[in-house]
Each structure stands twice: as C-alpha cells, then as structure tokens.
Amino acid sequence: MAPVLAAALNIVPAAAQSLPSVSVPPEVDRVLRDYEKAWAANDARGLAALFAEDGMALPSNQPPARGRDSIAKAYSGGGGMPTFLRVIDYRASGDLATVVGAYGPAGQALDAGKFVLVLRKVDGRWLIAADIENANMRMGPPPRPPPKPAG
C-alpha cells in the first residue's frame, strides 16, 4: 500500500486468494474504503490523514515514515490505481485493533499483496497507528556488483 503497490499491481500475483475475507465493524471498514479512495485518487495527503498524528507507515523499499507529513511524502507518487482492500483477520481490544488483509486491483479476484494495520481509536474515530505491506511476488536477489577492472 505504499508506492511499490502500483508496481505490484502490474504483475501477476503469485497466488489467488488463499484465505477467505472476514467482515469488520462499519467504522473499521470506513478506514479501508477511505484508504482505497485516497489511493485511487493519488491523494497522499488524504492517505496521511487516515493516520494518527504519530502514526507510522512501513512501505516496501523505503525507510519507515512517522507522522502525517512524512507519511504523505512516502506515499507521494504512488497510487492512482483503483485498488481493493479485503480483511482476512480482525482483532480488537479496547482502543486498539489489528487488521490483517490483502490487496489487489479493483475488480479482480487475485491478491497482489498483503498488509497489517494497527488501528487506534482517537476521539472516537479509528485511525491508523501503523501500516505495513508487501507484495505476494518473490523479490529477486540483489543486483550483482559490477566486475572489478583487471589489473
């Protein structure tokens, strides 16, 4: 769900849905649908607004981002593609909840990746405290260094 998501959605996912979707309370589902809308609109500030003030994003291929300004920078240049988020596990206790889910291109049945959200209730509203995602495709080995010049 970071800028790598756009690239991940352009690949053929490694596997179809492996775990069934589960339902979540409407106020948690709202976070997911708002995330989808902001992602599709390439609205990095809108995505960052879904996070708690001290929230963290752990996007693939980038350092962690803490705080809404840093999160907006991390998400700038990503998105712009209709995406669907589905929940495969949900747990809540008090003012904290976890959402484990999968994402993929809207309108397709295959998951391109998975994510974990930690939600925290702030002033009665669920906000993202932490977000981590990764693609379902295997990453290749790092590039080999260039050969050393002879002599």
What attributes characterize this protein structure?
six-stranded mixed beta sheet, alpha+beta, 34% strand, globular, single chain, 151 residues
Describe the structure.
The protein is α+β, with helices and mostly antiparallel strands. It is 23% helix and 34% strand. It has four helices and six strands, in the order αααββαββββ. Strands 2-1-6-5-4-3 form a six-stranded mixed β-sheet, with helices on one face. The termini are far apart. 31% of the residues are buried.
How do the helices and strands line up, and which of them pair or pack?
Blueprint: H1 3-9, H2 26-40, H3 44-48, E1 51-58, E2 65-66, H4 68-75, E3 83-93, E4 96-105, E5 113-122, E6 125-135
Gist of the model:
This protein is an alpha+beta fold and 151 residues long.
What is the subunit arrangement here? Answer: single chain
Structural class, judged by helices and strands?
alpha+beta
What is the helix fraction of residues, given as a range?
Answer: 10-25%
Mean pLDDT: 86
Gap between N and C termini:
47 Å
Report the uncertain regions: 2-16
Using only C-alpha atoms, the radius of gyration works out to: 17 Å
Tell me the strand order in the biggest sheet: 2-1-6-5-4-3
Number of helices: 4
Major sheet summary line: 6 strands, mixed
| Percent in strands | 25-35%
Number of strands: 6
H/E element order? HHHEEHEEEE
Shape, per Cα inertia axes: globular
